[in-house]
Amino acid sequence: MSTHAKLDLSTLEQLRAISKSMLAFANLGDWDAVSNSDIERRQILHKQHDKCIEGVNQLSRKQLIGEILAIDIKIKELANNERKSLMDKELRQQAQIAAQTSYKHALTPDTGL
After folding, report:
1. pLDDT per residue as tens, the chain (113 positions)
2. Confidence (pTM)
3. 55 phi-psi bin (left φ>0, alpha ψ -120 to 50, beta other)
4. In the chain, what are the domains?
5. Distance (Å, rounded) from C-alpha 24 to C-alpha 18?
6. What angle separates helix 58-107 from helix 31-48, to the nearest 10 degrees?
7. Directed axis angle between helix 58-107 and helix 9-28, to 10°?
């Protein structure tokens, strides 16, 4: 039985709430809070691992799972954008330092005899 089939609606709603919080934290750039929320989400999943729920509305479960997965995709996109932004900033800083060094070197008189 898949992990999705083992989760009841209240657990999925709890996971969705945490996922929404994660997305809000990601939008704010608070990646520590995103990570902490992800740990909380994994703990819930771990506790539910052996619990099998039968008779749960399949459509509701699918909708909740779809919502959670869509939120996760948004979080990943935000994380990738943040990573790219940090890499671009680092490259710009390195280029600026190289230009300053080159400029200073060009202004330093060559004392080679």
Report:
1. 344 446 678 888 999 999 999 999 999 999 999 999 999 998 888 787 655 545 556 778 888 889 999 999 999 999 999 999 999 999 999 999 988 888 887 777 766 55
2. 0.60
3. left
4. 4-78 (1.20.58)
5. 10
6. 150
7. 20
